[in-house]
Amino acid sequence: MAHYLKHPLHFNENYFAAGFGILAIIYFWWKNIEGIHESSDKALWIMKVTTAMVIILIAWCAVTVLKTHAQLPPLPSLENMKLDHEFLGWLTGTRLSHVMWVVALVGMGHSVLAMSGEETLAQVNREIESPKLLNLQRAGLVIFVYSLVFTSFVSFLAVMIIPDAVRPTFFANLIGGLSMYLVGPTLAKLLFHAFVVLVGVLILSGAANTAILGANGVLNRLCETRVLTSWFQRPHKKYGTTHRTINLIAFLQVLTILLSRGNFYVLAALYAFGVVWSFSFHGLAVLILRYKYPEHREWKVPGNLKIGKREIPIGLGLITGLLFLIAIANLVTKKEATIAGVVFSGVFYCILTVSERYARREQSGQAESLEQFRVFDNPALDYALVGVRSGNILVTVRDPNRLHHLREVLNRTSTIDQDVVVLSARLSPGRHSLTGSTSYEAREVFDIYEQGLFSKVVALAEKQGKRVSLLVVPGTDVFDAILLTAQRLESSRMVSGQSTKLTADEQAKQTGDAWERLPEPKPRLIMEIIGADGRRHEYPLGPHEPHLRPSDVELLHKIWLEITADPRNAGLHHYHVIALALEELKRSLDSDEREALLQQSLRDWDS
Which residues contact 302 (CB under 8 A, 6 or more apart)? Predict the structure, then answer.
C-alpha cells in the first residue's frame, strides 16, 4: 500500500495485529456473554460479506487470466518445490525429505487450516437446529466449498497471476497481493485491496468468535462429565450464559496473543497443530465407537465391508489413518508449534487431572451432573412473558424416566413454526400461585428434582435440535394448574404421558373436569395422551362434535328415514333427530327413570 501511495508507513505489523486481535476478542467476548444468537448473527453477516468478496475476486481473476494469458502452475515435483528448513523442520537433511509422498503429507499439513471449520462443527453440534443431521451435512458442505474455492483455488490463481519475484513478499497476505496484480485501473485495485483487507479482518474476527463458541462447548462438556467443577457452569444472572468459561477462554486467547507478540506465523502454526490433532482424535473416537456401539446409525462414512455380522469401516479407517499421518508430518516439521503444543497439552492435562479429582470430591453423592438454570419468579403468567407464540403445544412432564411423549412431540413438530412448552406442575397443598392470592419464592418451586427433570428435558431437546421453553407451576391441584397454564399461554394442544395410576379415559376425565372449572373465556383444546407403547389417545376439551361410531350413524340415518317418510316432515334434518333424542334423554335423567336408564346404558356399553 505504501508503494502505491508513494508514502512510507512505519509500524510494527505484529504489534498492530496483536492489538487489533485483542480488540476483536473483547468485542466477541461480550457478544458471547449476551448469548449465542447475538454472536451467531454477526458470524452470518461476516459470511455474506466474505462470499461477495470471493465472487468478485474470482470473476476479476478470470478476466485477468484471459487477458494476460497466464500459465497454469507446474505439476508438483521435488524439483518445483522450495524445500527449505522452514518447510521441512526436523526432516531437513534426512532421506524422508526426498520422498515425494512424505513431502505431499507435509504440504497437506501446512494447508490443514483451510478445513478448520469442520473441526468446530463437533463443538457446536448440540446447538445445531433440527433437522440436525441434514443441517450438519449442509454446514460441512459449505465449509468444504469455501475451503476448495476460497483457499485452494485462489492460491492457484495467485501463483498464476503474481510474478514469482514478488510473490514471497505477499505470503502473509496472498489475497491482498493478488488484488494488486489484477488488470484494471490502479484506483480500482486499491479500493478492492482495501475491501480485501476489511474482509480479512472480519474473517479473523469471526475466527476469534468461533474459537470462543467451540472452546465454550468443550468446557461445558468437561463440566458435565465432572472434569471441571460446577462453579464454571453457573449461568450469568442477566443473560443465562456460562460466563465464567467464556471469561476463561477470552483470557487465554489474550494471553496467547501477548505471549506470541502477535506473530501470525507462529499463531497459525499453533492453530494448525491443534486442528490436525483434534481431527485425528475425533476420527479415532468415531472409529472406536463404530466397534463399541455397532447399532443402526442415521449416517455412516461410506466404504463399509460387511462380513457376517461384523461391519468393517474401511472408509473411516483410511480417513483416520491419513489424518494421523498428516498430524505426524506436522509434528516433525513445525518445531515451534510442536514444542509449544506439547507443553500446552501437558500443562492442561495436569490442570484438568487435578480439577477432575477436586470436582469428583465436590460432587460425591450426586447421581449425575445437572444442567444449570436461571429461574424467573413471576405469577403474572402469559405467553408473551414466557416468550412463546399463541397456538403452542404444552407438554406436561413429571417423571424424568418417562419422557417418551416429549420425544414424540419433538419428532413431529417444527419448533420454527410452533413453540413447545414443557411444563412441570408441582403440587403445593394449600397454595396456588396462578390465582394471584400467593406468590412463591423461586427456590420453593424449583429444587433439585426439577433441576434433574429439566436436565433430562434439555438433553432430549438438544439431541433433537429443537428449542423448548421450560416452566414450573405450583398449585393445589395438578390438573387445575395445567389447564390454567394452557389458558394463560393460549395453547392449542396439551400432550401428557399416560399415568401409571389412571387409565387414559380417567386421566382425560379429570382434565376435562379441570377445564370446566376454568374462568371464562374457556379455550378450545385438544388433549393428547401417549402411552409408553406409543399408543395415542385424543380428547377434545369442552363442547365439541362427538365421535360417532358407524353403527350410531347408521341408526341415526334409519330413524331420520322413518321420520321423513311422512311428507309433512320432509324438511327435518339429522340434527333435529339428535336434538329430539337429547331432550328426551334429559327429561328421563331428571325423572324417576334415571337409575334404570343408566343401568341399561352401562349394560349396553359392556356388551
Answer: 315
- Return the residue matching grid coordinates 401417549: 530
Residues 324 and 597: their CA atoms lie apart, in Å, by 82
Kindly report the number of other CB atoms within 10 A of residue 97's CB atom: 18
| CB within 8 Å of 48: residues ≥ 6 apart | none
Give φ, ψ of 432 to 5 degrees.
-150, 120
Q: Please state, in angstroms and as integers, the Cα–Cα distance from residue 497 to each residue in 162, 398, 403, 501, 536, following that order.
A: 68, 9, 7, 12, 9
- For 324, the enclosing helix (H) or strand (E) is helix 314-333
Q: How many CB atoms lie within 10 A of CB 100?
A: 11
Q: What angle do CA 332, 335, 338 make, to 5 degrees?
A: 75
d(CA 91, CA 5): 43
Among the listed residues 33, 32, 59, 53, the one whose alpha carbon sits nearest the alpha carbon of residue 43: 32
Task: Report residue 448 as a C-alpha cell.
Answer: 433439585
Q: Residue ranges of the alpha helices (H) in 334-378?
A: 335-362
Give the integer Cα–Cα distance in Å for 376 and 127.
23
CA 605 to chain centre: 51
Residue 146's pLDDT is 78
Question: Using one digit for the tens of pLDDT, what is the confidence trace for 44-71?
Answer: 788 888 888 888 988 999 899 898 888 8
Superfamily of structural domain 383-541? HUPs (3.40.50.620)
> Which residue ranges in the chain fall short of pLDDT 50?
433-437
What single-letter amino acid sits at 568? R
- Structure-block grid coordinates of residue 336: 515451534
DSSP H/E element including 532: none
pLDDT at 433: 46
What is the DSSP annotation of 260-278?
A: HTT-HHHHHHHHHHHHHHH
Spatial CB neighbours of 124, under 8 Å, sequence gap ≥ 6 = 213, 214, 217
> What are the domain boundaries of the chain?
12-346, 383-541, 550-606
- Measuring CA to CA, how many Å separate 3 from each of 6, 8, 9, 177, 201? 5, 7, 9, 12, 21
pLDDT confidence of residue 579: 86
Q: Which amino acid is at 263?
A: N
CA 458 to mean position of chain CA atoms: 12
Contacts of 94 (CB under 8 A, 6+ apart): none
Total-model pTM: 0.64
Which pLDDT does position 403 carry in this prediction? 92
What is the pairing mode between strands 536-541 and 525-530? antiparallel
Report the C-alpha gap between 22 and 45 in whole angstroms: 21
Q: Which three cell numbers, joined as nine digits, stand for 25? A: 476478542
